[in-house]
Write a structure and sequence with these properties.
Helices cover 36% and strands 30% of the residues. The chain is of the alpha/beta class and 358 residues long. The chain folds into 2 domains: 2-142, NAD(P)-binding Rossmann-like Domain (Rossmann fold, 3-Layer(aba) Sandwich); 149-302, 2-Layer Sandwich (Dihydrodipicolinate Reductase, domain 2). Strands 10-11-12-9-13-14-15-16 form an 8-stranded mixed sheet. It has a 7-stranded mixed sheet with strand order 5-4-1-6-7-8-19, with helices on both faces. Strands 2-3 form a two-stranded antiparallel sheet. It starts with a strand and ends with a helix.
């Protein structure tokens, strides 16, 4: 039997209102695809309250009703967990808890799939890398935007491009209602730490850059009105170097103040070099591509797409890649390793320090 441990029972794990949780949904979908019901899911909770148990069971049923598929599930408090008996674990909780749980999992040789950003600092990342190598146990991070067809296309274009200078402009906003869903976590973080890592990961796999300079600033006009102790807008400007290539990257992250805005997020990335111009709308989906020979537009699949009792989209592909690696030993080189997270953690450390000083 495959024993899978899920640490975290919130929005991304089990869902919220009518939205299904991507973690548990992905395991259900993967189980259906492989016709494998010999799976036991354990949800770890820190406090065994009736309210918490009811929440998990209610969200579990909502996910399973959609897929018309069930798995064996149990709920256990941390003190009663035997980490060693699990064959994989999902860390679906804020990064400030990653180091604590990762140490226990790695020492018990349980491979980990964690939401971004992994751990709170570059120092913690390096400690976990050393521990994972010592115990020969892998840690992977859910950087699902690297599975997005548009981002893969952009990466291929950059790889073929002979330009020496690039301007990357990224704007990523989420609806302010998300601040209320994640309010406990948001108070310990900022929108760049929450929204920025996916695009830092893309910059890393596209360029493998060195950091030359970073400048960041923030505002808290909206969060003050909501009595939250966090920024609501963070803008980060970076000068990066990769061989002969110089990259100027600007990443703007913020909350959309209009709660009636129809989309959960706005995401746009623009890549400009001497030879090409790419503009990708990753909220409404679609990409415009221009170079010296071609002008065309492509369309892409969504982060998640629920249809006919199945789940697809690049959000699912990320979880599937991890499950395939652990249980079928499929060599999927698209998985994000802990080493590949160093660039992201380094940038987050610098930005956090600058924002605190300002």
């Amino acid at each position: 039997m495959k024993k899978i441990l899920i640490i975290g029972t919130g929005f991304y794990s089990l869902g919220y209102d009518e939205i299904l949780g991507i973690c548990y949904s992905s395991i259900l979908q993967w189980s259906k695809e492989n016709n494998d019901n010999d799976i036991l899911i354990t949800f770890l909770i820190r406090n065994n309250t009736k309210k918490k148990v009811r929440h998990i069971l209610s969200r579990k049923r909502k996910n399973e009703l959609f897929f018309n598929h069930k798995l064996k599930v149990k709920i256990a408090i941390e003190e009663n967990i035997n980490f060693k008996e699990h064959s994989s674990a999902f860390l679906i909780l804020p990064e400030k808890y990653h180091f604590y749980y990762s140490k226990m999992l790695i020492k018990n040789k349980v491979p980990i799939f964690a939401v971004k950003p992994f751990c709170f600092s570059l120092k913690e990342n390096k400690k976990m890398l050393s521990l994972s190598k010592k115990n020969k146990t892998d840690i992977y991070i859910d950087y699902h935007k690297r599975y997005d067809l548009e981002n893969r296309f952009i990466g291929d274009c950059i790889k073929k491009d002979k330009s020496n200078s690039y301007q990357i402009i990224i704007n990523y906003s989420q609806n302010i209602k998300m601040m209320k869903i994640f309010n406990k976590w948001i108070n310990t973080s900022n929108p760049f730490q929450y929204l920025g890592p996916h695009y830092l990961d893309l910059l890393n796999i596209w360029f493998k850059p060195k950091i030359l300079k970073i400048q960041s600033f923030s505002s808290n006009y909206v969060s003050k009105k909501l009595k939250l102790k966090t920024s609501d807008l963070v803008s980060v400007n970076m000068k990066l170097k990769s061989g002969t290539k110089t990259i100027i990257a600007n990443i703007n992250t913020n909350w959309i103040e209009n709660i009636n805005y129809p989309m959960r997020s706005r995401q746009n990335i623009e890549v400009i070099s001497e030879n090409l111009h790419i503009n990708s709308d990753q909220g409404y989906r679609g990409l415009d591509f221009v170079n010296k020979k071609n002008i065309f537009e492509i369309r892409n699949n969504n982060f998640t797409f629920y249809n006919n009792k199945t789940l697809s989209g690049y959000g699912y592909l990320s979880f599937k890649a991890f499950l395939d690696k652990i249980y079928f030993n499929k060599d999927n080189k698209s998985l994000a390793s802990i080493e590949q997270n160093f660039f992201c953690s380094n940038v987050l450390d610098i930005v956090r320090k600058q924002l605190n000083e300002n």
